[in-house]
Amino acid sequence: MDEDGKHVYGAGPLYTTRIDGEVPLFIPPGATGASALPPVTLCECFHATAEKYPSRDAVAWRVKDDAPSDAHPYSFYSGLATTAVGSHWDKMTWAQLEQECYIFANACLKMGVESKDACVVMGFNTPQWLIAFHGSVQAGGVIVGSYPTNGIETCEYLGQDCGAKLVLTESWAHGSKFETLLRDKSQKLAKIVVWGDMTAVPSDIASSKEVLSFVDFMAEGRVTVGATHGHSHIMQTVKAEEAKLKPTQCCCLIYTSGTTGPPKGVMLSHDNLTWDANAFIQFAKDEGVLADFGPEQVYLSYLPLSHIAALLLDFMFAAVTGGSIYFATPDALSGGLLPLLQQTRPTFFFGVPRVWEKVMDAMKAKGAAGSETQKKIAAAAKAVGLARNLGLAESGGRATGLSCADEVKYLLCKAVVVAKIKMSAVVFAKIKTTLGLLEAEYLPISPHIFPYLPISRAPRSGYVFMLGLDRCTAFGSGAAPLSKEVLRYFWSIDIHIIEGFGMSETTGYMTSSAFPSKTKLGTVGVAAAPGYVKLDLEKGKGFAPAGEEGHGEVCMRGRNVMMGYLNKEEKTAETFDEARFLRSGDLGKFYDAPDGSGTPMLAITGRIKELIITAGGENVPPVLVEDQVKLQCPMVSNAVLIGDKRKFLSCLLTLRVVMEPTEVGPQPTDKLDATCLLAMQAIGSSATTVAEAKADPKVAKAVQEGIDRANAAAASRAQKVQKFVVLDTELSVPGGELTATQKLKRDVVAKKYSAEIESMY
Predict the structure, then answer these.
(1) What is the C-alpha to C-alpha distance for residues 302 and 355, in angstroms, rounded to an integer?
(2) CA distance 613 to 697
(3) Is 42 exposed, middle or buried (0-12, 13-18, 19+ CB in 10 A)?
(4) CATH number at 7-18+497-610
(5) Rounded Cα gap, residues 275 and 248, in angstroms
(6) Which of 36, 105, 173, 730 could form a disulfide with 31 if both were Cys (CB 3.0 to 4.6 A apart)?
(7) Burial (0-12, 13-18, 19+ Cβ within 10 Å), 419
């Protein structure tokens, strides 16, 4: 028992930094709901679903139409397509997937994978990724994801830190990043498996059999002792390893994006993964977010699987519900989204804030190009739509807050929109054009996003089905705060984004909102279970905004909180308090849920490590100021606030530009994008490149006016921006200023642009 009298399941210390360690979990006596979910391993969860839905589709992927027919009977998922054009879907049922995972696990065992050996996967989302995810764990190993954008130095660090025994990559371009570890016999790495083209593999390594194709690797797993035993022998061998697994042992390593230093390996247990997925699904059902959260769900997998969000939303949700995972082709990131949407008709979309901002910008740009009549209809509809949804949220769904006249206006606006859509082929063309704008960024697109307005509850017209959006019932956002202005925009068009809060260290999900019962602008919802979130008010005293109370550091514990950071004893110890609450480093405040339940809802008000403390001692949360600057300056894509230990605040700005896809991430060009060009036209500027914009006095004047408007909304004089510099290029992953998950590396920016910063002081 701990100090709260909770039942202890498993053994070990409160945290561990060993990959072969074990951490107990706590279940309150008399617990109900999510708190009482029984502990299970990933393998138990996976097999239960495969047994329940053996003939349902588990996974689908695109295969090239001209792929050579392979005589090998088990290579039916080779020939992966890079685009939806000239390709077709191939599928596996849950029973087939389970069999392939057994074979992969057996191959791991034959290749020398032992208990808690790390298996690293690096590549775009494919069935091989999924098979490796389950199969390596079934063999007793620990699955580790590596971002496809990681360079050689990061890959070598990751491989050494986790002691990788096996590496799987989509190409030798990725595999070569681990080549030094393979050649270094002091390292554990024994094999590199490539599921793509093998022709680039050096001949000396290829001949040594240290690098294998995925088909050859799986062939090793199919070879059994005694031909008469067949697959049953493989199952018995693997099941013997599965029987040794415990829910409280390490299952997965998620490496942090490294915004403030080297990536840290977050150790997640079997129970972390299975509990977190089950807990969110139960919450979504209870709150009516997704009433039918079962095998009918379709997930279009496109987010990096080395990120906990994709692992949870795609792999774990499917493992729990029996839903179908459709793997996007890599060109979905650069224009190939539309055919995938048409063919998969996904039921749920999740996007990081940057994605939703891009959607909003594109829709605003299309709306601005409409006629004056269309603009008036849209403005009226959005105003009423926002007021109505604000009323629903503020009352917990009990009332809209609209007068009878406004309710009629709301319905009339929707009727006008529906009539226009049904009558006008031009609207369809506009939507196709809008989608074309969005595809380059691979944005989640709602069936409710139209140029003219709130029709989310209106009859779905034929072209919506043609676009493959008719089954999409919910949208989510996470990984970073979504600004109030972005949320208000989508509320105005009846798109209720589910916003939550979590970290890799909490298996992705710790709080979630639900419209309208558990929603309040500026909050990230309610805790996954009672007692899982608290505020350290004492820690918040030195960082809370002047004159405000109730702010504290967000601290979390529960069955979704990590085991510890791999090989980092000091960092792990300082992350947990004596009651095993994880210190997030985020500032938060509680508000009562609007449905009258008294359930506390969390608002994130800042990040302690990012807070700027001016020379005058004022605490300034940079994100709030940066968001306001971007809101008031539509041509600006990024704003980085400067001012720590300075007499006043300044800002580094970047303009919106066209991004070209590369293997290491989107590369910025000098060409202004469509949204920025529209903003240029609005101020009378003919600039089409960053260089031209920087040389145009009209642009400088427009940016200054935008900052003036942002300053007018500032909470105090100390939060006003006094000077700014427009940088020559956009921030990016290849440039080193952003992580693979688009998070800002403030220290890197400060060093890289130190000359520009000093020029303002």
Answers:
(1) 13
(2) 33
(3) buried
(4) 2.30.38.10
(5) 11
(6) 36
(7) exposed
Helix (H, G, I), strand (E, B) or coil at 684: coil
Written as six digits, the tokens of 760 are 């303002």
Q: Give the start-to-end residue ranges of the domains of the chain.
A: 7-18+497-610, 37-67+76-273+289-327, 347-492, 612-758
The residue assigned the tokens 């720590």 is 644
C-alpha dist (Å) from residue 455 to 381, 416, 491, 673? 10, 10, 12, 29
- Tokens 């063309």 label which residue? 429
Distance, CA of 159 to CA of 178 (rounded, Å): 7
Under-50 pLDDT residues of the chain: 1-5, 225-228, 417-467
CA 115 to chain centre: 30
Quick one: pLDDT at residue 212?
Answer: 93
Specify the residue for token string 């929707």: 414
What sign for the dihedral angle of Cα 201, 204, 206, 210?
Answer: negative
Dig out the tokens for 532 from the structure: 């899982």
Residue 245's pLDDT is 97
Other Cβ atoms less than 10 A from the Cβ of 63: the count is 17
Residues 619, 596 contacting (CB under 8 angstroms): no
- What does the pLDDT read at residue 403? 62
Please state which CATH number belongs to domain 37-67+76-273+289-327.
3.40.50.980
Supply 156's token pair: 């070598």
CA separation for the pair 190, 178 (Å, rounded):
11
Beta strands in 68-163 (DSSP E): 87-93, 118-122, 142-146
Dist. CA 45–CA 137, nearest whole Å: 12
| Percentage of the chain lying above the pLDDT 70 cut | 84
Secondary structure class of 446 (helix, strand, coil): coil
Q: Map residue 635 onto helix, strand or coil.
A: coil
Residues 278/37, Cβ–Cβ less than 8 Å: yes
CB-side exposure of 462: number of CA atoms within 13 Å? Answer: 4
Contacts of 528 (CB under 8 A, 6+ apart): 34, 276, 279, 280, 283, 509, 510, 511, 512, 558, 560
Which residue carries 């397509």 as its tokens?
A: 81
Nearest Cα residue to 575 out of 565, 566, 587 = 565
- Count the neighbouring beta carbons within 10 Å of the beta carbon of residue 464: 20
Instruction: Give the residue from 569, 702, 551, 567 showing the smallest Cα distance to 636.
Output: 702
- C-alpha 344/C-alpha 361 separation (Å) is 26
pLDDT at 517: 82
Q: Do domains 37-67+76-273+289-327 and 612-758 have the same CATH topology?
A: no
Task: State the pLDDT at residue 562.
Answer: 96
Domain 612-758 has CATH 3.40.50.2300: no
The candidate with the shortest Cα–Cα distance to 135, out of 105, 114, 111, 95, is 105
Q: What is the 3-state secondary structure (H, E, C) of 657-690?
A: EEEECCCCCCEEEEEECHHHHHHHHHCCCCCCEH
User: Which residues, listed in sequence order, are joined to residue 55 by a DSSP beta bridge?
Assistant: none
Pairing of β 667-672 and β 657-660 = antiparallel
Tokens coding 279: 């807990």
- Strand-pair partners of 474: 348
Q: Residue 381's Cα: distance from chain center in Å?
A: 31
- What is residue 620's predicted lDDT score, i.e. its pLDDT? 85
CA-derived radius of gyration, the chain: 26
